[in-house]
């Protein structure tokens, strides 16, 4: 996603390096900002609110300049340009952006092998959003202790074939935690996925001192109970942040160009310039190289069906 064009402040016109202060949490009108000297609880300068009417004036992950107003208190004066965002449409609006996380480096989609049952179409949505935002993406398959035979994990094989790193973990046994830590190191990562898949448990395994509250799976519905209500940016080490994002059962698309949906499926890309028609939608056209690759087994059929349903506007999940 392009750099944020909205709020033209002196900071945004400055060629100096981005400020070290990073917003790690928001509470209505207040934001916790991590600075080299510690956490500062801040409000937002009114001019910023007026300049950013179509997006959040400040969001978790923003790099900001602040002025101290007292011990542990301050005012956010300016926000550095957002290089990319994870966003959705603000409720009740058509054109206002709600920023879930500003300036992430990658998205790690966390799904469980069971309890709750994984839904590949939802995983596809997360990965499409990452691709559209120019984010690196990985898949974390959690709760593998519930799948001793490995049979349930086969549903994630097409994502390996598409080129995504797939990390298998168990927050209960500790399997895969070191591999997950290595993928996260040195980046700002969004851990996203449906409720109940064990995001908080994984974060606890990565950083035991946090002791985040872990939700239970509803015995009635099988769906996870939400344990996180707002994005929180957690410092794992001096170079590594992870965002514990709210559980999202239905994720809407924001700013996705559906004319380029085929480019958001990495396994399609080798075939896109081989179609007979330059504007091929890969649905019914003769001479479509993508359809031929699906028929030959080079592209996973279920992944293609996910694309087809989204491109045709028939996927309501």
Supply database-style keywords.
single chain; 317 residues; alpha/beta; OB fold (Dihydrolipoamide Acetyltransferase, E2P); Rossmann fold; Ribonucleotide Reductase Protein R1, domain 1; six-stranded mixed sheet; globular; disordered N terminus; GTP binding; ribosome biogenesis
Structure description:
The chain has helices spanning 46-51, 120-132, 157-161, 177-184, 199-206, 289-296, 301-312, and strands at residues 22-27, 30-35, 38-44, 64-70, 73-79, 85-89, 97-102, 106-112, 136-142, 166-168, 188-192, 232-237, 240-244. The longest helix has 13 residues, at 120-132. It has three domains: 22-88, Nucleic acid-binding proteins (OB fold (Dihydrolipoamide Acetyltransferase, E2P)), CATH 2.40.50; 104-244, P-loop containing nucleotide triphosphate hydrolases (Rossmann fold, 3-Layer(aba) Sandwich), CATH 3.40.50; 258-312, Ribonucleotide Reductase Protein R1, domain 1 (Orthogonal Bundle), CATH 1.10.40. The radius of gyration is 21 Å and the shape is globular. It is of the alpha/beta class. Belongs to the TRAFAC class YlqF/YawG GTPase family. RsgA subfamily. This is Small ribosomal subunit biogenesis GTPase RsgA.
How would you summarize the topology of this molecule?
Elements: E1 22-27, E2 30-35, E3 38-44, H1 46-51, E4 64-70, E5 73-79, E6 85-89, E7 97-102, E8 106-112, H2 120-132, E9 136-142, H3 157-161, E10 166-168, H4 177-184, E11 188-192, H5 199-206, E12 232-237, E13 240-244, H6 289-296, H7 301-312
Parallel strand pairs: 3-5, 8-9, 8-11, 9-10, 11-13
Antiparallel strand pairs: 1-2, 2-3, 4-5, 6-7, 12-13
């Amino acid at each position: 996603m392009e750099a944020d064009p909205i709020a033209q402040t002196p900071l945004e016109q400055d060629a100096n390096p981005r400020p070290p202060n990073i917003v790690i949490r928001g509470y209505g009108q207040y934001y916790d900002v991590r600075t080299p000297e510690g956490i500062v609880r801040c409000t937002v300068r009114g001019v910023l609110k007026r300049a950013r009417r179509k997006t959040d004036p400040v969001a978790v992950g923003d790099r900001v300049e602040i002025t101290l107003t007292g011990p542990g208190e301050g005012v956010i004066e300016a926000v550095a340009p957002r290089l990319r965002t994870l966003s959705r449409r603000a409720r009740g609006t058509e054109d206002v952006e709600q920023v879930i996380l500003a300036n992430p480096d990658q998205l790690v989609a966390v799904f469980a092998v069971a309890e709750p049952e994984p839904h590949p179409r939802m995983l596809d949505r997360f990965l499409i959003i990452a691709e559209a935002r120019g984010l690196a993406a990985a898949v974390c398959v959690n709760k593998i202790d519930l799948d001793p035979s490995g049979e349930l994990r086969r549903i994630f094989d097409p994502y390996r074939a598409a080129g995504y790193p797939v990390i298998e973990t168990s927050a209960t046994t500790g399997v895969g935690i070191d591999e997950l830590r290595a993928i996260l190191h040195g980046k700002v990562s969004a851990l996203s996925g449906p409720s109940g898949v064990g995001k908080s448990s994984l974060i606890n395994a990565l950083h035991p001192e946090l002791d985040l509250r872990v939700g239970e799976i509803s015995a009635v519905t099988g769906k996870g109970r939400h344990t996180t209500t707002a994005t929180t940016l957690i410092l794992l080490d001096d170079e590594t942040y992870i965002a514990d994002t709210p559980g999202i059962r239905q994720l809407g698309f924001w700013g996705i160009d559906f004319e380029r949906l085929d480019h958001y499926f990495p396994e399609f890309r080798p075939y896109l310039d081989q179609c007979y028609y330059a504007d091929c939608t890969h649905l019914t056209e003769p001479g479509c190289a993508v359809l031929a690759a699906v028929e030959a087994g080079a592209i996973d059929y279920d992944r293609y069906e996910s694309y087809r349903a989204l491109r045709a506007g028939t996927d309501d999940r």
